[in-house]
Amino acid sequence: MSDSVYVTGLRLETLIGVYAFERTDRQLLLIDLELDFDCRVAGQSDALRDALDYDRLFKTLRRWALEQNFQLLEAFAEALCQLVHDQFAIGRMQLQINKPAAVSECTAVGIRIERCFQ
After folding, report:
1. Fewest Cβ atoms closer than 10 Å to its Cβ: which of 41, 75, 116, 118?
2. Residues 6+ away with beta carbon under 8 Å from 100
3. Cβ atoms of residues 70 and 79 within 8 Å
4. Main-chain dihedrals φ then ψ at residue 51, nearest 5 degrees
């Protein structure tokens, strides 16, 4: 399949970091996702029930992120991918997370991963 749904620059706040000053206040993460999703059915039906519901996706991720307390971006990323798979039946995805406040000498640092679920 070559269809995908993408999200660029989703702003999520969460408690994340290993240093004491990071453990008290939520930080902003910028999320880019590319989700394998067959768009043909929705393209033919023009019905939301056949599409990936962006509003539901965003609300699910935002609510989940606010409840989390990870030290590492890697752990946050793995859990986020599992959530997207479980809630939206996405089999393959690419995820990039930027942590703008991580290093003052640059715009952002982060990670990029790809996960496939069977």
Report:
1. 118
2. 28, 30, 107, 108
3. yes
4. -110, 170
CA distance 61 to 14: 11
Cα 65 from Cα 16, distance rounded (Å):
10
Which CATH number is correct for 4-87, 3.30.1130.10, 3.30.950.30, 3.90.700.10, 3.55.50.30?
3.30.1130.10
| pLDDT number for residue 107 | 83
Helix axes 73-88, 54-67, angle to 10 degrees: 140
| Paired tokens of 72 | 């590492």
Q: What is the pLDDT of residues 46-80, one digit of tens each?
A: 999 999 999 999 999 999 999 999 999 999 999 99
Q: What is the DSSP letter of 52?
A: -
- Exposed, middle or buried: residue 63 (CB in 10 Å: 0-12, 13-18, 19+)? exposed
Indicate the pTM of the whole model.
0.93
Task: Name the one residue in this structure whose structure tokens are 């996702």.
Answer: 33
